[in-house]
């Protein structure tokens, strides 16, 4: 694909503005978490991407028809305001995914409306916020998303996300995480839905500077490239075909059948 | 499991009562399509099941909390009235599936609200109603749902359902169908969602007596047994576990890592 | 299935007889590791199984044609003597699996000839023997093999097996293990090969009394039931069908095609 | 990946030289089937590939250590001479696949030693040579191998390959074929083994000019790009890691566990 991948990095942008977290966030993520995610992708993919950001507070949460029509890959980070995301926007994003747009759901976005809708399960999990160290292990070494990262990635401090994580069996399992407390989590999982690709990646909490971690930036950049649609994408969700002409003019010749 | 599997066979029961189809349906399915599906399951599984029927026209579509609390496996056939199914009932069924209830979605139920919700895709397909012969081929011969049927099952007359069928990659692919017109369809597919099991099986149109076909009855009976929850099922959807105690008291020892 | 599942528990029976380990093994596994595995299955499944043992030292390693013809599920534990297992016996077991026999490969059997042959990969892994605690987490709570065990299973002392474990992507992933050292392992994985089912389960080292652990016994008993072939099994591996008659007499009607 | 993908097209080159087929093959495939496959890949991928051919009759079947060390993707077509392929060469190819080389197994290569070894099943199927028309249907429209081909691909004349095809459940199912006779076949299937990717594609018999079909050439070119290893590939099969240092210094804190 010669033209750049058009990436929209969506941020809930709540902690950045909340009374409680504002000061710490300004230090940890001066451009917001979405700013950090966007910067990492730009840093690693350069001219191969065009990156914009959009946030919850903008009209249509920054995800108008026009923005989505110009988005090949959408990344989504949310946490406190899932319920206030407009259902019409969620449906719009969903249709775009079915039509071929890639989606990267990050960390607490496991409980976002769009991810729950795409998984069709509760997406519940086990969690504890106690500065666990997280180790991210690759279990699919030839997968494009796992290229260029060590075995394991070491994240000094992170929130713990643990099993049972109520998601459908992934189409591809790329990463497993362990934590100081002994827990395990399917932390990097791939799905296809309609014509679109979905990647969930759990590292990345607002309380820790995970999106500045070079290996995490590498994973996100790899995932953007993996999730990008084919150059020929028309972004139409698969449609019903009514009464197509048959290819064969046929009739049943015999009915004897063999056991398997 | 010693106690019988409690099966609820749900029927839209529209064609049975419509001006246009009433006469033909009374001949083809004198007890309704739900009646035929229920009879087939009872015939083959006997005392191992307790079967009841429920229809769209009943209060709560016959799917009250109490009915669902006493249902291990629900079968669903609908066609013309998908849109008039109450969302609250759909959510109730969905929660019950996540908690462990089995669901068999039949034929045109590919467009039912509950199936679309569970798949999270458009579930669109290609179709033609022109008395095609359908051959149902087993591609997973050791799968419990495929036991006791010939290779292939021959259905003399059926509506054609063809690819592309917009569903997630199945967890298990059991049957593929071909048609006189040359089309192909993933006609028997398995999913796990939460604690529940879902089987979609496409043969079975209102215009043809497919549910009287002995091999089709065998598939449905097998699928009921496959989809039944474990004896210990508590039917609670997987829940979040907040701040569980760690299992290990640990600290990071070293950070050297190896490439994959 | 009314007739009992015929289980053959195979043991390498090396550590039990070696100069170095004999004394400790006699205390830990007085009937041998195969004896302990067999006893656990009998204890939990009772009349539903007929269990025999076979060991490396017997003629044909105890796996004659006749024994295999009377085996529904074979469990395999080996460690030091993989290379001395006769290729002809391995081929015989392989053919029986393709024909429908279940196979449970246990712990260090990841490097057995039969498991490597079935996986077709190196089956290499990371390991350390330093009395790690192992936690076995269920990631497929409705899977029959995971019924009746706590979340997680706690094994006080075990050898560490860690990723990258070079196996094909499992058909079903049931258990993930973590270790005191922070490692992770896909410790319970399911495959179908031909008509047979294969389950690999890693807990169970000669240096620790893991096969006396009640939860581990439960997993093995569940796996025996899961891996058992259908009552109608003929144990013939899938065969070529040469020049079958066509079902349809057909000709190509048209060649117009639609883009996906 | 900026440097070209190094492709080796292997041909059994038997029919091209046999008394019976020589004349017809010279007309149908004047450069041999391997010549046609190679030409199609070069035509569509241009400077992005370096393509060479190798045949059964050459020393080491043309697959010396040096050739394999300079091969990113190997395509394999064989039919009559599977048994005469040297086991040492098969092992060499197998190790290279585990290390990251892509493998495309074509048509009757379902019975090649290398494909059977990688699948670990019988790879048996149903077949009939009676000039069936084959329709190749895409069931994974966003898969890179399916880009740029119509739905379905129409092959006027082909040998029939039908189910049951005794292969492991594919990691990704891309194409399904139907035939004039009503049969169905999983004709395009993807696997990962070790670090390598494997694609089996059934269209392409010596009796028909299938490798000149523009859509078939497109599939093969797409598959070469899909199967190519990452730029950073070291081609070492995954290895055992003995006694690695633990990442955590930990001890068990508590043993209370929760049911799933």
TrEMBL record, chains A, B, C, D:
This is Trehalose utilization protein. It comes from the Bacteria. SUPFAM superfamilies: Class I glutamine amidotransferase-like. It comes from Microlunatus panaciterrae. Residues 6-227 form the ThuA-like domain.
